[in-house]
Amino acid sequence: MKLYSNIKMLREQLGLSQEELAHKVGYKDRTSIAKIEAGKIDIPQSKIIAFAHALNTTPVELMGWENKGYYTDPETAAYAEELRTNNEMKMLFSAARDISKESMKKTYEYIKFLKTQEKGNDE
Question: Gene3D superfamilies given for it (predicted)?
C-alpha cells in the first residue's frame, strides 16, 4: 500500500530514524514503525494525523490520495510543491510548524509587504 512506502520515503527524506519517528507519533520504540513500513501492521486511523504532522505532510498526501491542489496558477503550484518537497527549500514550511502565533502573524505581514513591493515594481 502507498501509505507504508510514503511513510518510509518521507521519514528517510527528513533524515529521521525509525526510533525518532516512533517517539514523534507516540510509539515506545522502532518496532512498530518497522512493521508499519513493511506493511505488516495497519495504522490506526487516529495515528494518520500524527504521522502526517511528524512527517511534515498532510493526511491526504500521506495516504497517496489525489489532491486537486490549492493554487490556481500552475507555476505557483509547481514552485510551492518544490518548496514543500526540496529539502533545501522547505524551510518556509517547516519553520512555521513550531513558531508562535505572533511570529506567524509577523511572517504573514512581511509576505503581504513583499506583495505590495512586487506590485509597485510592476507599474
Answer: lambda repressor-like DNA-binding domains
Q: 88 in a domain, yes or no? A: yes
Task: Check whether residue 58 and residue 6 sit in a common domain.
Answer: yes
Q: How far is CA 40 from CA 34, 104, 119, in A?
A: 9, 40, 54
Domain limits for position 27: 2-63
- Tell me whether residue 69 is in a domain: no
Question: Which cell numbers in the block locate residue 86?
Answer: 526540496
Q: Model pTM greater than 0.85?
A: no
Residues in the chain: 123
Q: Which residues of 26-59 are buried (b: 16+ CB within 10 A; e: fewer)?
A: ebeebebbeebbeeeeebeeebbebbbebbbbee
18-34, pLDDT tens digit by residue? 999 999 999 999 999 99
Q: Is 17 left (phi over 0), alpha (psi -120 to 50) or beta?
A: beta
